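quick one, 396 residues, struct below
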Amino acid sequence: MDEWTIRVRDANREMIGEIDDEQELEIRDRHLGHGAWKIVADADTDSAALLEEGDGIVFEINGQTVFSGPITRHVAEVSDDEAGTDRPDGAETVTFTGISDTSAFRRIIYPDPTRAITTAGVKHPVDRTTLRGPAETVIGTLIDQQAGPSALPTRRHPGLVIPTSQGRGPHITSSERFTDLHEHAFALGAGANLGWRVIQDGTDLVFGVYQPQDLTDQMGFSVELGNVDTYTYELTPPEVTHLIIGAGGQGKDRLLFQYTQPSPLWPGLVIEEFKDSRDLKQAPDGPDDTEWVDPAVASAQQAEERFAEAAAQQTVAFDLLPTEGLVWGTDVGLGDRVNFDTPRGVVVDLIREVVYHRTPTDGQRITPIVGDEIHMPATYRALRRLRREVARLAAA
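---
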């Protein structure tokens, strides 16, 4: 069995001890997403005291660091489970939660990352930060300039190190202003089939890039194949199948476009939605209006984005049974595209998340999750979409 080690670090990211008697450990590592962790311990144990003193954790498997992150919250809870024994007031537990080091810094993208913005007011000499090159280089440079060693001193994330790029991924262009650094860097990684994360190494927080594999022709999962213990399959319908976009004008002067994308997972389902795109002008303001885009083109792009966001979702979460030639982190890992066979058919998608879970009763479990973020509430997805649209207009 793999050897799992939980180390606790102090504010200087020096190791001050190990956790080995927790009631529950859960670590969620996400491909191009924000990771999180939780440890539940008895309040009167050395582990609880160590976490109280510490600043964060480092999670290792067989001596290899796979996750790290700071403590962001802890909660004490008293139950009556053991009341009347040697604990007359009941058993007290403490729950420590945190995020991944990838998530620990949040920045917006400055148009000019070398120009500070102060209460005195300042204008930036350029419209946006524009970078071109291999995707790995662009993402690393962007994070370096906005939060790393090359950033303004007040914007640097302590200890963040950006190694020399290996030049992986296709050549891309990034041109942004005042957008969320993480969301944009995650999007760049997804488009280039790369993943990136920040993990503690020594006392440094090191930015790293990994390249997911397409294992659909060689890696399948199912109970019948003997590499899955138990699994959960979930399917939700699309939010919209028929989209009407109203471009420019008012009332009867609106130019209306309809786009249709039925879901093969939910045949016969029709869900209509209207999108107000009055910012799409029906005609240019004049011969010098170089920013005008034909609303037929712009609305088609908006429809494509909305359908992708609102598509039917299917997710499989399964407990992995290691077998010969199937070792998590070596043969298969985050971001890899795999097959999972269910009675409803084969799910072919990325491993978007992995959950490491340990309790004294159940022992250690590794649970990869294949498919979409099925538990993200529709309201949150709508708010996230609205935030992107507002940011796009505000940054124009």
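Confidence is low (pLDDT under 50) at residues 83-88.
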